[in-house]
C-alpha cells in the first residue's frame, strides 16, 4: 500500500476512527485507500468531478482489494452524495475559495467532521468558516514536496465568529507550537507565512490604499514574529 505524503497523512489523522468518509476531489484515491486499507474507517466514497482521476482511483482501489469498502463516484463536489452516507468529509488539494464553494452548496453540514486542506487562499477559507457558523477545532501543519500546508478540522455549530487578520492568516497554528510532535513543523509553517508577508511588503507601492494595507501587513508580521520569539 502506498504511504501517504505529509499533507494527506495530516488529513488522515483527523478522520474519525470507524467513520464513513467522503473524499471530495479524490484524484488517485490514495487517502481512502490508505484509510480503508489500514482499517481506520469502515467505508469511503472516493469522489471526483473528472473521469480520468476517478478511473485511476478505481484501479488503485482494486489493486488493494478494497472495492467492497470504497465506492467511486463521479460528482461535482458533494452534489452526488447523500450526507447520511458519511460521517466525515475531506476536501483536500484545492484552493480555499473552491473548498468554500463546495461546502456552501450543502450548508449547514451539521454533525459532519470536516477535514479541509487548502492549497492556496487559506485566509479566505478560515474567514468563510468563521462567518458561516463553523468552529475550527484544530489545525495541523504539513509538509510535502518542499511546500508547507495547513490541514483544518472544522465542525458546524451555528455560531458565527469574527476572524481578525491574524486568525485569518495563521488560524490555530500557533497552538501547534505547544505540541512536541508538531512544534518544529508549525514553527516552519509560521516562518514561511511571515516570509510571504515580507515579500508582499517589499513589493508594495506607495498609493494611499497600498500604505494602509502595508500598515496592516506590518502589524500582522509583527504578531507572527512575537509568536515565533
Low-confidence parts lasting 5 or more residues at pLDDT below 50?
none
Number of strands: 7
Report on the biggest sheet.
7 strands, mixed
Protein structure class:
alpha/beta
Instruction: Please list the strands of the largest sheet in the order they lie side by side.
Output: 3-2-1-4-5-7-6
Strand content: 15-25%
Helix-residue proportion: 40-55%
Q: What does the overall shape look like?
A: globular
Rg over C-alpha atoms, rounded to the nearest angstrom = 19 Å
Count the helices. How many? 9
N-to-C terminal Cα separation, in Å?
41 Å
Average residue pLDDT: 95
Q: In sequence order, what are the helices and strands, one letter per element?
A: HEHEHEEHEHEEHHHH
Explain this structure.
- It is a single chain.
- With 229 residues, this protein is α/β, with parallel strands linked by helices.
- 43% of the residues lie in helices and 23% in strands.
- Strands 3-2-1-4-5-7-6 form a seven-stranded mixed sheet, sandwiched between helices.
- Strand 2, helix 3 and strand 3 (70-74) form a beta-alpha-beta unit.
- The radius of gyration is 19 Å and the shape is globular.
- It starts with 5 loop residues before the first helix and ends with a helix.
What's the SSE blueprint?
Blueprint: H1 6-13, E1 20-24, H2 30-37, E2 43-48, H3 51-63, E3 70-74, E4 88-95, H4 96-104, E5 113-120, H5 122-131, E6 134-144, E7 147-156, H6 165-170, H7 173-176, H8 183-202, H9 208-228
Parallel strand pairs: 1-2, 1-4, 2-3, 4-5
Antiparallel strand pairs: 5-7, 6-7
